[in-house]
Amino acid sequence: EPEVTQTPSHQVTQMGQEVILRCVPISNHLYFYWYRQILGQKVEFLVSFYNNEISEKSEIFDDQFSVERPDGSNFTLKIRSTKLEDSAMYFCASAVNNRELFFGEGSRLTVL
Amino acid sequence: GQQLNQSPQSMFIQEGEDVSMNCTSSSIFNTWLWYKQDPGEGPVLLIALYKAGELTSNGRLTAQFGITRKDSFLNISASIPSDVGIYFCAGLTSGTYKYIFGTGTRLKVLA
After folding, report:
1. Which of A6, A17, A48, B79 has its CB 3.0 to 4.6 Å from that of B97, i.e. a possible disulfide?
2. Cα–chain-centroid distance for residue A13?
């Protein structure tokens, strides 16, 4: 069964460093998303991406964050200068039609 | 902002029992999704609901889209140990791309 894959599964970084999280969405999906989940808390929306542009973003998704679909298969989330409070699980999701979202296994980011 | 409250927050049940949980909001939603999340893993889609009043089943799971469009319900019949996990509802408002996730219901099953 097709699935969303994410790399790395765990990344440890120093505060102030740049981080890129990678996702390969399900191949025929057109809508892409990043969500995050701080340990023990609910899943929070970061950004949605459709037709090669951001379609919606949350207040969490500030200038330190960016997304890209560089080659038609990967979908990346970049955090330019990480802060301690960026430590969380980051989930990529994709959908055919912005209705049923399928999530990856997540990338755990630890900022020291 | 929009909030989805799930109830109960957590529950312990005996294997074989039926489980009911709900998700409520003061906002109206056009689509409801129900997910299960195991520790350290991503949410797995269980059921999708698109119309007020809709009742949809997936094996032992049944979910309903509330008539007011401000709530949704999930029932699990004859629970088994692998039902353990956190169940999240997620609601989508018309014209947006942002699913709002609920606070989660943690289910623990006693064998």
Report:
1. A48
2. 17
**Averaged pLDDT for residues B8-21:** 95
Q: What residues pair up with A37 in beta bridges, in sequence order?
A: A43, A89
**Phi, psi dihedral angles at A84 (to 5 degrees):** -55, -40
Look at residue B101 and tell me whether its pLDDT is greater than 90: yes
Within 13 Å, how many C-alpha atoms sit on residue A29's CB side?
27
Contact between chains at B98 and A106 (C-beta distance less than 8 A): no
Chain A partners of B29 at a C-beta cutoff of 8 Å?
A: none
Residue B16 has pLDDT above 70, yes or no: yes
Contact status, residue B63 vs residue B75, Cβ threshold 8 Å = yes
Q: Does A94 touch chain B (CB under 8 A)?
A: no
- When pLDDT is averaged across residues A14-26 and rounded to a whole number, the result is 97
Q: What is the DSSP letter of B51?
A: S
Q: Which of residues 70-89 of A touch B (CB under 8 A)?
A: none
